[in-house]
Amino acid sequence: MEYSFPHYLLSKQSVDDRALNRIVFEALKANLPGRPIRIIEIGMGIGTMLIRLLRWDVVRKVDYVLVDELAENVETAREWILRWAVESGMSVERGGEGQLRIFDRSHEFHIQFECADVFDFIQKNPAPADLLIAHAFLDLMPLPESMPRLLALTKHLAWLTINFDGMTSLEPTIDAMLDAQIERLYHATMDARPTGGDSCAGRHLFGHLLNAGAEVLAAGSSDWVVYAKNGKYPADEAYFLHFILHFFEESLEGNVKLDANKFANWLKERHAQVERGELVYIAHQMDFLARV
């Protein structure tokens, strides 16, 4: 199988749709200003959150800045958002470099794409937004030291979603001891990233936000729960599961604490479980809405 990170981001759209905490989401809608707003999203991937806000009719008139350091993501986002808008019957105008306007009778999104490391972007001193979005991103960041800098991107709200919080479950069991070892070692790689990361970021965000001077308005779980119905996974979620297993392989290949042959066989059987529609995958995560 060929693995494409933008394809993975697209395949998890339906998984995230189910996972996002509805209480936190309702708090977001209740606290958004009624006027046209400015949104900055960091680590935006291919722009699925922007499309989600359109599909769910959360905001109607917005200046939306999308920031990601991977050129492949930004290029995919430009083309995918444009194609989605056209297929959905919206009008599209290309502006200057990295600019796009999509609109219809009730929505107008002025979009700016920024291919940049988030901290380089912050150094450009952008005007703070009404809403900062970080979706499945903060658990990759060096926290808590970077939290004040990230929150400086907003003058009002921060919606911080899908923050991993220390639990991965793959069913059915293959070998209880081996399964537990692989999970433990996989989580340890999250804590050892040289660029930052925390396998328990979700629970730690309560303290990080408080210490950075923010108020938690709402918080709740946003677990990924993926399973097949009648032997078939919804949408493109079989690809999502294969890619999750690819993350395991990339993270643990060559790990001296893990028997290489046992791990190879474990991966082979897990992929086969996906093909048979048997694998159940659960990851515990947390959503937050904060006011700065």
Helix content: 40-55%
- How many individual β-strands? 10
The CATH superfamily of the domain at 5-166 and 195-225 and 282-291 turns out to be: Vaccinia Virus protein VP39
Backbone CA Rg? 19 Å
Architecture per CATH nomenclature, i.e. the level-2 architecture of the domain at 5-166 and 195-225 and 282-291 = 3-Layer(aba) Sandwich
How does the major sheet shape up? 10 strands, mixed
CATH topology of the domain at 5-166 and 195-225 and 282-291: Rossmann fold
End-to-end distance, in Å?
A: 44 Å
Strand content: 25-35%
How many helix segments? 11
Shape: globular
Order of helices and strands: HHHEHEHEEEHEHEHHEEHHE
What integer is the average pLDDT? 96
CATH top level label of the domain at 5-166 and 195-225 and 282-291: Alpha Beta
Determine the structural class based on helices, strands and strand pairing: alpha/beta
Unreliable spans are none
